[in-house]
Specification:
0% strand; 74% helix; mainly alpha; 316 residues; 13 helices
Length: 316
């Protein structure tokens, strides 16, 4: 099969699956949430301590932070070993290391926030907790450095463009998802659970805007009750697709590439399921959030790493 035919087949398959799932979600969002939150989200509660839901809520943000830090450390080793000595090399080394440790610290801080919130612990934290976060971030930076230093100079040269483009693509995915949440202002299922009815339910394509923050805090105890669409956690989880794409850049074997793609799909799906279970998002929310993350990965690699090879094949 020619590259053109493969590209047409893959694009058509993606569009068919996404469109079918989105149409299904449009008409079943509320019903799916009612089924999956049963025995997980107690009546009147905004949060749940359900093990799977709480665990995946914390783990779900992990890929975006860790993959971003991995890319930063690849840039560091490239700058240190391949880049010519000078001001640019020094700047790249400093910026990439600072970026990596910041991402690790941000993830550990987020984990701590979830622990405090889920177990009703005091929000004010002792000063030593910040020390623990910094220590863990530096330790993870060291472990990551030991892992990425094994890349050969040839591999680093293959990966440097991919690493830089991936960092930008993940930021773009964040901006797209976060930029849609505020204007769409979709009410979360768990917010409906607090007030005891679904009168505030809207379909994903309805633009409603954000209610008064003071009212949301008084009613739900938080100001994020109307940020259901799209799902940020599922977008975070979709960062695992960068690992599968990295395997392609390195030219790894078919089995390894297939295993990484399967892992990315399964992990993203597991996080998406958990977000519906805890009432944080609807089916359409996780579908769109995960798709945004996936497309930012695939399209950035296509246009800025592979030289738009598939697009060019369609024109021949």
């Amino acid at each position: 099969m020619t590259l053109k035919k493969k590209t047409i087949r893959n694009v058509c398959l993606f569009l068919a699956i996404f469109t079918g799932l989105l149409i299904t979600a449009t008409f079943t969002d509320l019903q799916v949430s009612r089924i999956l939150t049963k025995n997980v989200l107690q009546p009147g509660n905004y949060y749940t301590n359900h093990f799977y839901g709480a665990m995946m809520e914390t783990v779900g943000t992990c890929p975006e932070y860790l993959v971003g830090a991995l890319m930063a450390q690849i840039i560091f080793w490239y700058a240190l070993r391949v880049q010519k000595k000078g001001a640019l090399q020094t700047a790249l080394c400093c910026v990439s290391l600072a970026g990596a440790v910041t991402l690790y610290a941000m993830w550990y801080n987020e984990v701590m926030n979830y622990i405090l919130r889920r177990f009703d612990l005091p929000e004010g934290r002792p000063a030593f907790i910040w020390g623990v976060i910094v220590f863990l971030a530096l330790l993870t930076l060291l472990l990551g450095a030991l892992a990425t230093r094994n890349f050969s100079d040839e591999s680093l040269q293959k990966l440097i463009r991919f690493a830089a483009v991936s960092c930008v693509a993940m930021v773009i995915a964040i901006l797209i998802v976060q930029g849609l949440k505020i204007p769409f202002g979709r009410m979360r299922f768990r917010a409906m659970n607090v007030i005891g009815d679904d009168s505030g339910y809207t379909r994903w394509y309805i633009i409603g805007g954000q209610p008064d923050k003071a009212w949301m805090r008084a009613t739900f105890g938080t100001s994020d009750a109307f940020k259901s669409f799209p799902s940020g956690h599922t977008r975070d989880a979709a960062a695992t697709f960068y690992l599968a794409s990295m395997a392609e850049v390195l030219g790894l074997g078919k089995k390894k590439k297939a295993a990484l793609w399967c892992f990315a799909v399964l992990f993203t799906g597991a996080v998406a399921l958990s977000r519906i279970m805890v009432g944080a998002h609807f089916f359409s929310d996780v579908l769109v959030g995960g798709t945004v993350g996936f497309l930012c990965c695939v399209l950035s690699k296509e246009f800025f790493v592979d030289g738009a090879i598939h697009v060019k094949a369609l024109r021949t």
